[in-house]
Amino acid sequence: MPTVLQGARVFTGDQLLEGHAVVLEGDTVHAVVPACAIPPSATVHTLPGDTLLAPGFVDVQVNGAGGVLFNDTPTVEAALAIASAMRACGTTGLLPTFITDDAVRMREACEAALTATSRPGSGVLGIHLEGPFISRERAGVHVPSFIRAPDPRDLDYLTALPRRFAAHGGRVLMTLAPECVDDATLRRLATSGVVLSAGHTAATSERTTQALHAGVRGFTHLFNAMPPVVNRQPGPVVAALTHDDAWCGVIADGVHVHADNLRLLLKVKPPGKVFLVTDAMPPVGTPVTSFTLQGRTILRRHGRLETEDGTLAGADIDLTAAVRHCVHSLGVPVEEALRMASLHPAAFIGLHGHRGRIAPGQRADLVLLKPDLSVHTTWVAGQAKSNVSH
């Protein structure tokens, strides 16, 4: 028996509709119909009239949430717990992110994420390996002793991963520094299905351009963990701005990137090529004021997550807050801000055929937003979870 959601405005990912209802069949969107055409046999749920039903958010960079850090516990349970915690923030699909660590733990994280991805309705869409093939010069909080070049065993393992994840609809994203990986290796990884993203890099614009031609698809938290633009050394940022096909993930929290840089990015890039990430850490969704990251204390203070010396260590934000920041501080239209949190990241990792729109055949992963753009309810695979106490 179909389930119908009616009463709210509907943003399909393409257009904003009034007086329409969304018909769900199990874990899939069956139809979007005028309210007068609701199937008579359906179970109807009437949503508040001042709410907005939108595609669920997709976050491709989540280190932790709800008190859990994937690097600390690279297990199935940790991946599922992070996805559950972020669901309350409107994120219905994510890539648990494992930052630079030793090879054994990296493989443990991949296997755990693979199992979590295979669980129906888990909200885990694969894995993001942020490192270890990155620049020591732009390591940020990554531990330098774990940074290394890929060896044959790495490549054999990594190039086999995408097919294993794809069997469950999942994806493998890898952040690397173009100057630390040669073109042949980039091509081998990209051809296998690994989505490659440049980050934690000090590459020149010329080297970054070469890497884009060799299979790098986008940029991880653009502007952060990479050199600033200099007149005779434009670096990776200008390569990202000037290559229309390159995707750019950004942390829109008012801390990581100056608003004018984000406005410039949105002005320069073609529509659809800028998307939001959180780079979230364990405090998100909790009241905790500190946590430990690979032996270092990270403090939650002044809207930042940082080491005692002030180095940023991920972000204290969820995608709903990032959407609000785009709308209220950057002047981004609501529809595009929502696409930046759903359709565009889904397209970046190749899942836009299933996520990012409310349309027939799409996954029934949805978020219901209040007028202030906070979360009222989410649906993952057609199953609802309300944030409102009754």
TrEMBL record:
The protein's name in its UniProt record: N-acetylglucosamine-6-phosphate deacetylase
Key words, A-Z: Carbohydrate metabolism, Hydrolase, Metal-binding
For this chain, the family text in UniProt reads: Belongs to the metallo-dependent hydrolases superfamily. NagA family.
Give a yes or no for keyword Hydrolase in this entry.
yes
Question: By its UniProt entry, which InterPro entries does this protein fall under?
Answer: Amidohydro-rel, GlcNAc_6-P_deAcase, Metal-dep_hydrolase_composite, Metal_Hydrolase
Which intervals hold domain Amidohydrolase-related?
53-383
Q: Which Pfam families match?
A: Amidohydro_1, NagA_N
Q: Which organism is it from?
A: Corallococcus caeni
CDD domains xref list: NagA
Q: Which domain of life is it from?
A: Bacteria
